[in-house]
Amino acid sequence: MVFYFKARPDIGDYSIFMGLDKHENEELIKYGFPEDIWFHVDKMSSAHVYVRLNKGQTIDDISEGLLEDCVQLVKANSIQGKSLYYS
């Protein structure tokens, strides 16, 4: 089951999707939109997090708050990543 979140209201009307295993991640890739931006912990196992931007927006339009929401989800759902930064 792919998880679905809404960004904080003060950030804007954005949908965030997260897969917890390789099967869910493959589904997200398969059915992704061109407006989706992918977040993942580099060189470690982690959830795949996608934010769906509005049509016409690019990665340059991601606000600091939206970026923070996405990276916190990725970090919180990486066993390796969490242990490096919370120990």
UniProtKB/TrEMBL annotation:
A Pfam family of this chain: NFACT-R_1
InterPro entries in the record: Jlp2/Ccd25, NFACT_RNA-bd
Residues annotated as domain NFACT RNA-binding: 1-82
Family designation: Belongs to the CCDC25 family.
PANTHER family given in the database record: COILED-COIL DOMAIN-CONTAINING PROTEIN 25 (PTHR13049:SF2), DUF814-RELATED (PTHR13049)
Name the UniProt record assigns to this protein: NFACT RNA-binding domain-containing protein
